[in-house]
Design brief:
Layout (H helix, E strand, L loop, with lengths): L1 E5 L2 H11 L4 E4 L3 H10 L2 E6 L10 H9 L5 E5 L3 H12 L5 E3 L6 H12 L3 H13 L4 H12 L7 H8 L3 H10 L5 H17 L6 H7 L5 H12 L3 H7 L2 H13 L3 H6 L1
Parallel strand pairs: 1-2, 1-3, 3-4, 4-5
Helix pairs in contact: 1-5, 6-7, 7-8, 8-9, 10-12, 10-14
């Protein structure tokens, strides 16, 4: 999972120590870079310092909240009289987690906060909603699919899934058939459409941003998948469906195991 760190070098070093192998940390040094990274990279969490530009400011972070309301934000800053008012304003925006430099930023504390906010990320919520469909699969294959959902731009083909699970393509496809799921290709495509739908609920993303972030070579491929799995264009699904409705539509049409096949085994 990618964590965006809009913090100083010292703070970023502490974040990387706390993240270990569970999180990847990418540092940015300006607010323009923050926006660019969120739109183009699979950022699932953002750790930001209101002091990044030198003065205690809330405007840029409030803008992030407006543009990307689904992105969990963690404040990591120094407690000063100047930051106190900023933290109060951001708290009223719904940003709950604050870590203070040189006070409670021990690696275990940072790790705890990252883990708590990870549970609110788009990929984690999607994984939780698809857990029942994935449960019958072997653990090694399920792990690969979970990684594919966390980083949909990196795992896009059945061959890549099979290779990471250390099985051949035919075995991978056979496992899906045994539990009554559609082909792995359909599963990956449907999951990417659901992920795209989640991102498109945030006003800061364009359809082109989402296509790039999810690894589509062309935006029209995302449009084709949106029509195939949700019966809507990307623009229509942004306006017409909430996350629960989109999930229900995909699960009903593509991801619900066929009980007749399961009982026949």
């Amino acid at each position: 999972m990618l964590v965006l760190a809009a913090v100083s070098d010292v703070q970023c070093h502490k974040l990387r120590r706390a993240a270990g192998s569970r999180f990847s940390v990418a540092q940015v040094l300006t607010w323009d870079e923050v926006l660019e990274a969120i739109r183009s990279q699979p950022v699932e969490l953002a750790v930001v310092d209101p002091l990044m530009s030198g003065d205690a400011r809330s405007q840029e972070i409030e803008r992030l909240r407006v543009l990307f309301p689904s992105l969990p934000l963690i404040l990591y800053t120094t407690l000063t009289p100047q930051t106190a008012g900023v933290l109060l304003a951001l708290g009223q925006r719904g940003i709950q987690h604050v870590v203070f430099a040189n006070y409670d930023d021990h690696p275990s504390r940072l790790r705890e906060v990252l883990g708590q906010e990870e549970a609110r990320s788009s990929s984690r919520q999607l994984l939780d909603q698809l857990a029942q469909a994935l449960a019958p699969l072997p653990s090694e294959l399920r792990w690969v699919l979970e990684e594919a959902l966390r980083s949909p731009g990196e795992v896009q083909t059945v061959g890549q899934v099979a290779a990471r699970a250390r099985v051949d393509r035919r075995t991978c496809e056979r496992w899906f058939t045994r539990v009554g799921l559609p082909s792995p290709r359909h599963f990956l495509s449907a999951a990417r459409v659901l992920y795209a739908h989640r991102l498109l609920q945030d006003p800061g993303f364009t359809i082109e941003d989402v296509a790039q972030r999810l690894g589509y070579a062309q935006t029209k491929t995302l449009q084709l998948h949106a029509r195939a799995y949700l019966g809507l264009t990307a623009g229509e699904m942004r306006l017409s469906l909430d996350s629960g409705e989109a999930l229900a539509r995909v699960v009903q049409r593509f991801l619900t195991p066929q009980q007749s096949k399961v009982s026949a085994l």
